[in-house]
Amino acid sequence: MSENSAKKEVEVNTPYEVGDLVVYLVSKKPGNELAYVIDYDCRYELITTPTTCSCCTFMFRSRLDSNFKCRHIKALRTVLEMDM
């Protein structure tokens, strides 16, 4: 594995910008990943895991589509370099 293809080390308690969102990882323990995801303008702070989110969009859309991932989940999964 070359140096350029190695995964970056993601730090807990460090903000990561993903588009117009800021992902603040508070736990990266496998199976127990947790982050606060905040809109860039600080309107909302959401509790997000790789599979769930406290946003209204996720709460409603996931009832219709169990595979639905809101933009907050996608941002966290991007920081954690998880498959979408």
Strand content: 25-35%
- Number of contiguous helices: 2
Return the structural class.
alpha+beta
Total beta-strand segments: 4
Q: Total domains, how many?
A: 1
**H and E order:** EEEEHH
Computed over alpha carbons, the radius of gyration is 13 Å
Mean pLDDT: 88
State the low-pLDDT regions, or none: none
Percent of residues in helices comes to 10-25%
Using the alpha-carbon principal axes, give the shape. Answer: globular
Alpha-carbon distance between the termini?
Answer: 22 Å
Strand order of the largest sheet: 1-2-3-4
Q: How many strands, which pairing sense, and closed or not: the largest β-sheet? A: 4 strands, antiparallel
Please describe the structure with a list of short key phrases separated by commas or semicolons.
four-stranded antiparallel β-sheet; alpha+beta; 84 residues
Concise summary:
This protein has helices at residues 56-64, 71-79, and strands spanning 15-18, 21-27, 34-39, 45-48.
Structural overview:
The protein is of the alpha+beta class and 84 residues long. It has one domain. It has two helices and four strands. It has helices at 56-64, 71-79; strands at residues 15-18, 21-27, 34-39, 45-48.
List the helices and strands and how they pair.
Blueprint: E1 15-18, E2 21-27, E3 34-39, E4 45-48, H1 56-64, H2 71-79
Antiparallel strand pairs: 1-2, 2-3, 3-4
